[in-house]
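Quick illustration for those who missed Monday's session on complexes.
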Amino acid sequence: MTRVAFIGLGAIGMPMARHLAQPQFELSVWNRTADKASEFAESTAARAAATPADAAQNADVVITCLPSSGEVREVLEREDGLLGAMVAGSILVDCTSGDPAASRDFAKTLAGRGVAFIDAPVSGGVVGAKAGTLTVMCGGDGEVLERARPVLEAFGKKIVLCGPVGSGHAVKAVSNALLAVHVLSTAEALVALTRLGVSAAVALDVINASAGRSNASQNLFPERVLTRAFPRTFRLALLDKDIGIATKLASEAGTPIPLIDLAARLIHEARVELGEEADHVEAAKVVENRAGVTIQ
Ligand code: NDP
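Prediction with NDP bound:
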């Protein structure tokens, strides 16, 4: 039986971990707010661990799903953290949407202890996590990924090796930069059309059968903006972090990406305006406020 530890039962971590509460895995979970881990353990066969080290002891695969690489470093290095507890031959799979340079650093430190590392951020949102249909983009060694694959398959449908350590995080950051551009540009388009007297529902119906469509126009805006539901599934603060990683990577590589740079500035301003708990789609509200128009 594969022993799995899951660290971080947040908006997406919780539904991912639920898929690992199956007979073929011996699952232990740790969460900073301990109540979430004990509630999870009560409703599954998992064990709620007292510390990250307690969760990781004897685990074959440890999964982290935390806001950013900063929190992953904390959970690795704290006194009762993963570094001191993970055993040689085990694998750390970081499902955080993290920073490639930090991941290369983690991989090096862990390798010194005989522990393998892959970055494996996910896409598909809370809906995909609940359905077990996430896309998992991996960075690391192919042989290590094959060992971890049965665990990733519990919540992932499309699992792709993107390249060496850090590649999964790079692809994720760039993909979410596109998400940010799509949310902002779709909001701008609908604000303009609303002002011109075209109903947003009619406009989306046409756009979604035309070349301007995206996941934002096909799913996010009809379900969340037109309904004014704005459910909180993926924090704007996390999207700000992701697009920030993308702009940093491009700048380090000397690649001009002016459109994404502008989107990063607008997303950051929206975060400052709406706060740390706002959902990413709420960035549309900032576009509306600036134009003095509600998309309808
Ligand atoms: P949340 O903010 O909902 O949850 C964050 C988790 O990290 C919680 O379990 C929280 O614990 C824990 N945490 C925060 N700070 C610390 C710390 N200093 N030490 C230990 N644990 C900490 O985030 P999500 O679940 O939404 O996102 C997790 C990752 O997945 C992020 O990198 C995000 O970008 C990515 N992602 C999210 C998606 C989504 O739809 N939500 C989609 C795709 C990727 P506590 O319960 O105590 O607050």
